[in-house]
């Protein structure tokens, strides 16, 4: 079994767990650090299942997930797992929550997957092959100009203090900006429906699974300084449909930092 097929099969099974609990009146608890809510049974159940499946199939691989402690991070192969990306959507019955998986080889994302259980959509990207949407190749748009760009960010309220200037630069630069979506925004980007995604303060399990999806569809994804994303990145992410659009937005962000 290839790693791509493994990820797809694991997501099929994880979907069943997510949909069992979706819109079921789950009890929700806050994380100890007062970060966004987590769905106790669904989040933890899916991650436990995925960890078991990975360990059985690839016993020498490491695992870095949201709900449990990392294991075997000195391995050349590390699986990244976010059982439910968009927990606020999940607990409020909104269907735009996803399951994320990535595989790092020597620290570089070589495989990524966005699975959307409630709407039966899936993007998968693997190094050396085109990104697919529900099994068919997809492609980012050809947008090169910020003033023509359709942009997404999940939550504008996260841009506080010095980072507020970055959101303002985005708002003033693009043609249209929409909010919400979490991981779904990167799928929309990969399929050419939006042109730019700007996020702040993400965790490795939020952004590493989407790296190869964006790149394999022809897009560009980095941190706000234009550096490649890795497990130790700060979590401020810019993804763009074309290199030209990406460079233009990086210039705006650099101007914010200098101001």
TrEMBL record:
Q: Which Gene3D superfamilies match?
A: 3.40.190.80, Fructose-1,6-Bisphosphatase, subunit A, domain 1
| Cofactor section | Mg(2+)
Q: Where does Mg(2+) bind?
A: 66, 82, 84-85, 206
Query: Any signal peptide, and if so, which residues?
Result: none
* InterPro entries in the cross-refs: Inositol_monoP_metal-BS (IPR020583), Inositol_monoP_superfamily (IPR051090), Inositol_monophosphatase-like (IPR000760)
Show the PANTHER family listed in the entry. Answer: 3'(2'),5'-BISPHOSPHATE NUCLEOTIDASE (PTHR43200:SF6), PHOSPHATASE (PTHR43200)
Q: Which family does it belong to?
A: Belongs to the inositol monophosphatase superfamily.
**The protein's name:** Histidinol phosphate phosphatase
Q: What species is this protein from? A: Paracoccus shanxieyensis
């Amino acid at each position: 079994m290839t790693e791509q097929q493994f990820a797809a099969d694991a997501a099929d099974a994880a979907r069943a767990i997510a949909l069992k609990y979706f819109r079921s009146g789950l009890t929700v608890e806050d994380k100890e650090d007062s970060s966004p809510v987590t769905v106790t049974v669904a989040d933890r159940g899916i991650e436990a299942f995925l960890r078991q499946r990975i360990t059985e199939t690839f016993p020498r691989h490491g695992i870095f997930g949201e709900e449990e402690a990392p294991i075997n991070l000195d391995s050349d192969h590390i699986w990244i797992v976010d059982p439910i990306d968009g927990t606020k959507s999940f607990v409020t019955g909104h269907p735009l929550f996803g399951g994320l998986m990535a595989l790092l080889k020597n620290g570089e994302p070589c495989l990524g997957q966005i699975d959307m259980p409630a709407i039966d959509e899936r993007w998968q990207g693997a190094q050396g092959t085109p990104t697919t949407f529900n099994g068919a190749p997809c492609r980012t748009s050809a947008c090169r100009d910020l003033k023509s760009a359709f942009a997404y960010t999940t939550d504008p309220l996260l841009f506080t203090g010095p980072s507020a200037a970055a959101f303002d630069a985005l708002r003033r630069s693009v043609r249209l900006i929409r909010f919400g979506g979490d991981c779904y925004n990167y799928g929309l980007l990969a399929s050419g429906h939006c042109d730019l995604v700007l996020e702040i303060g993400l965790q490795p399990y939020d952004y590493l699974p989407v790296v190869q999806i964006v790149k394999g569809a022809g897009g560009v994804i980095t941190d706000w300084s234009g550096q490649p994303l890795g497990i130790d990145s700060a979590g401020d992410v810019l993804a763009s449909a074309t290199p030209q659009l990406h460079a233009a937005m990086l210039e705006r962000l650099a101007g914010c930092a200098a101001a």
